[in-house]
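User: Here's a structure from my thesis project, written as structure tokens. My advisor, Dr. K., wants to see whether a designed sequence matches the one we expressed. Can you design one independently, without my sequence as a hint?
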């Protein structure tokens, strides 16, 4: 399930054992409004070596659609209670 352009770090597989523990997103880094807004809502930037496989795949998919990975910032936020 996708909401508001954010992607869950673990995909829902229909299994009751699958648990989503974080939300992640990719934003344009050149726009000074986006990252500070999401930081105020608990998201933190994720350095390239610390990205999950799902985050790496999302950035690669965005690059295939013409978005420059060097101009993107990847952020994540834990889901409370998980």
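Assistant: Designed independently from the structure alone:
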């Amino acid at each position: 399930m996708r909401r508001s352009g954010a992607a869950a770090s673990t995909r829902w597989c229909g299994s009751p054992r699958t648990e989503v523990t974080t939300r992640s997103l990719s934003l344009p880094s050149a726009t000074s409004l986006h990252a500070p807004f999401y930081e105020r809502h608990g998201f933190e930037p994720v350095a390239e070596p610390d990205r999950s496989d799902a985050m790496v795949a999302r950035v690669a998919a965005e690059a295939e659609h013409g978005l420059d990975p060097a101009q993107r910032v990847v952020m994540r936020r834990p889901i409370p209670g998980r």
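When you compare it with your expressed construct, this may help: Confidence is low (pLDDT under 50) at residues 1-15.
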